[in-house]
């Protein structure tokens, strides 16, 4: 198949690596430097523009989530009737609302591959980024069955576990807790340490692997994550309220020297190990 990927960063570029094993992949990116890098790295066959999209079998939208709704509508306007269009953003309500009444809504599939690293840009694209990861498909009842089937066929060699979620709202609510909140926590921990430990050598000398793994996500691109936080503001604010309440409660236990309460809180939370076993394996 002929596949066009709009947005040649970490996710778009990594998908290009996988798809080009069996298909011809073309690239579109508003950044001229990204275009050159994608071609040089062999991520895409060549750079094209929107005028070539009617000839594509598949169009992948891998742009920042604040731009995704507009791009999705523009793409649906010009594709042929058989083209599959899907996005790969980590928020789904905005794009689903934007295309909801479009005449070619059935051509569109809302997809969220839950995979990534703290790096960005075409240079960050890697092989096997998606292997054994989960990909969520939202509002599948609004997509044509033949387009869902085409998507599943496309992803089959990548070996991702596909999960269906009817509600885009529920997706954004849950992902605020299990993904977006963890990124905010990482950024804020990094910010706190940088503000208090003015000497960077102290951080380097004293920080262990626990700190490094906790703040790893703080190396993520602000260009990627600022739009995500803004798009999912409603659910992120709720998750932050609950997170802050737990921090304040823990602080209170510590102030009161409530050893038993601190121990019980951590013991109860240890259950997360059992929940995450399937992910960590």
Task: Describe what you observe in this structure.
With 281 residues, the chain is of the alpha/beta class. The protein has two domains: 2-166, NAD(P)-binding Rossmann-like Domain (Rossmann fold); 171-280, 6-phosphogluconate dehydrogenase C-terminal fold. The chain has twelve helices and seven strands. The chain has helices spanning 10-19, 32-40, 68-78, 93-99, 145-155, 168-196, 200-206, 209-214, 222-231, 233-255, 259-269, 272-280; strands at 2-6, 24-28, 58-61, 84-87, 108-114, 134-138, 161-165. It has a seven-stranded mixed beta sheet with strand order 2-1-3-4-5-6-7, sandwiched between helices. Helix 1 (10-19) links the parallel strand 1 and strand 2.
Brief rundown of the structure:
With 281 residues, this protein is α/β, with parallel strands linked by helices. It has twelve helices and seven strands. The longest helix has 29 residues, at 168-196.
Brief descriptors of the model:
Rossmann fold, 7-stranded mixed beta sheet, 12% strand, 6-phosphogluconate dehydrogenase C-terminal fold, alpha/beta, 281 residues, 7 strands
């Amino acid at each position: 198949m002929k596949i066009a990927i709009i947005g040649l960063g970490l996710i778009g570029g990594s998908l290009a690596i996988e798809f080009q094993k069996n298909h011809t992949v073309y690239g579109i990116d508003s950044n001229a430097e990204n275009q050159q890098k994608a071609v040089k790295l062999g991520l895409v066959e060549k750079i094209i523009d929107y005028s070539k999209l009617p000839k594509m079998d598949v169009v992948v939208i891998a742009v920042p989530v604040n731009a995704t709704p507009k791009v999705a509508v523009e793409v649906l306007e010009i594709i042929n009737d058989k083209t599959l269009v899907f996005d790969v953003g980590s928020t789904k309500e905005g794009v689903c609302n934007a295309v909801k009444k479009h005449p070619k809504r059935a051509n569109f599939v809302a997809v969220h591959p839950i995979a990534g690293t703290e790096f960005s840009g075409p240079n960050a694209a890697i092989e096997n980024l998606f292997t054994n990861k989960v990909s969520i498909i939202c509002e599948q009842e609004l997509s044509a069955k033949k387009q869902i089937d085409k998507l599943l066929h496309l992803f089959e060699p990548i070996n991702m576990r596909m999960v269906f979620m009817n509600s885009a709202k529920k997706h954004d609510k849950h992902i605020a807790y299990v993904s977006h909140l963890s990124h905010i926590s990482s950024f804020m921990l990094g910010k706190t340490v940088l503000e208090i430990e003015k000497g960077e050598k102290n951080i380097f000398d004293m920080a262990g692997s626990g700190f490094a793994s906790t703040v790893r996500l703080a190396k993520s691109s602000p260009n990627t994550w600022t739009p995500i936080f803004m798009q999912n503001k409603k659910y992120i604010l709720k998750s932050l309220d609950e997170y802050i309440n737990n921090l304040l409660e823990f602080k209170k236990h510590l102030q009161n020297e409530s050893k038993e309460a601190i121990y019980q809180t951590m013991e109860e939370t240890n259950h997360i190990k059992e929940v995450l076993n399937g992910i960590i394996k």
